[in-house]
Amino acid sequence: MKRTLPCLLAAAVYACGTADKPKATITAEITGLKDSVVYLSVPVADSARTDTMRVVDGKFSWSGDVTEPEKVYLMFPTRYVELFLEQADIKISGHADSLSDVRVSGSASHDEYMAYRKSLKPVTDQEEALYANYNEIKDNDSAMAVLEVKATDLRTQRRAITKSYIAEHPKSPVSVSLLQDMAVVGEYKTLDSLYQLLDPAAQKTGTGTRLASRIAILKKSAIGEPMIDFTQPDVSGKPVKLSDFKGKYVLLDFWASWCGPCRAENPNVLKAFNAYKDKNFTVVGVSLDEDGEKWKKAIADDGMPWIQLSDLKGFKNSVAQEYGIQAIPSTFLVSPEGIIVAKDLRGAALHKKLAELLN
User: Fold this and answer.
1) At what angle do helices 141-168 and 188-195 cross, to 10 degrees?
2) In the chain, N or C: fewer CB atoms in 10 Å?
3) Contact 100/79 with Cβ under 8 angstroms?
4) d(CA 322, CA 300)
């Protein structure tokens, strides 16, 4: 009879499963950090696990298993800090008044991430300068149009640097993480082409596997794809189909009453609606609210006259899940034939696109 050999050698202990796996550890000392708690948010499948670390005299620590290097978040009382966690002894030091400048040592993947961040600095410095006087010009349409043009150019530069990094570092967990960040609101063709550049081992990591699933969902909502029909109730509970609006250009607008950027964009959408409602154009809102009263109040407060739909399931809204909506505001411009012709148009970009199509 075949027998299983015993684990005789110390070198074979891990293979036999009789000893603890190597741990990832964090040891931190932040000068000036008051006694409190710091949270560590670690991705788990499509969600996250949050661990609590108690701060005493500016010091806190953590240890646990990490199956692969991945980006996590240290949640301080006043802000969060990104960190690449891996099976290593990681040291963190800094001052509570400048948490953005904390020093991290011991994580090779975090070192790679900081090198990437350094390559972005010429762009991020310009972005900070661009938005320095935002509050002074936010009500000036011409000044905001100029800002949006400059901001779009800087976002293009940022994306170019990120794409180059991914292409040059196909095995890096940082590349996988950057691509995952892009996939929150990214376009299918770009994401898929970059994913194909990743090393096969990187594609097979937990993050890489989730990324592949995400890209497959985004294919259904790519520019040039037909918008899949759906039915959801309006504010009175009446079921409404997207196909009811076939023959018109439709701006499908995912938003919520609790979403500040959505509410800030609503006046711009209203301006577009009023300008083109008699030119074969309409808006259909899909709310990711859970509270029906707050949803209806926001509609009234923002003066939105177009059709509003919701199943009041938040981000579990069936349409949002179908199209992989992970951030709002998110919009799709759908042609009279039901084809997606543009995505995530906001501000002046929305008016420019509608003018091209309808004037």
Assistant:
1) 20
2) N
3) yes
4) 28
Instruction: List CB contacts of 4: < 8 A, sequence separation 6 or more.
Output: none
Q: What is the pLDDT of residues 158-179, one digit of tens each?
A: 999 999 999 999 999 999 999 9
Chain position carrying tokens 């950090």: 33
pTM recorded for the entire structure: 0.76
Low-confidence ranges of the chain (pLDDT < 50): 1-19
pLDDT score recorded for residue 311: 96
Helices (H), 169-259: 173-182, 188-195, 200-203, 206-219
Distance CA 71, CA 178 (A): 10
The residue behind tokens 């949050």 is 50
Peptide bond into 239 cis (omega under 30): no
- Beta bridge mates, 331: 253
Using an 8 Å Cβ cutoff, are 333 and 340 in contact? Answer: yes
- Rounded Cα gap, residues 43 and 73, in angstroms: 9
Decide if 116 contacts 178 (C-beta within 8 A). Answer: yes
Read off the pLDDT of residues 344-355 as tens digits, 9 standing for 90 and up: 999 889 999 999
Helix-helix angle 348-358:141-168, to 10 degrees: 100
Q: What is the DSSP letter of 33?
A: P
Contacts for 251 with CB less than 8 Å, ≥ 6 apart: 269, 272, 281, 282, 283, 284, 331, 332, 333, 334, 345, 350
Pull the structure tokens for residue 155.
């976002």
SS3 call for 301: helix
From CA 131, how far away is CA 137, in angstroms rounded?
Answer: 10
Question: What element of type H or E holds 274?
Answer: helix 260-276
Q: How far from chain centre, in Å, is Cα 297?
A: 27
> How far apart (Å, rounded) are the C-alpha atoms in residues 334 and 226?
8
Write the CA distances from 207 to 42, 248, 296, integer angstroms: 12, 40, 38
The span from the CA of 214 to the CA of 45, in Å, is: 12
CA proximity to 307, closest of 229, 250, 230: 250
The whole-angstrom separation of Cα 169 and Cα 176 is 10
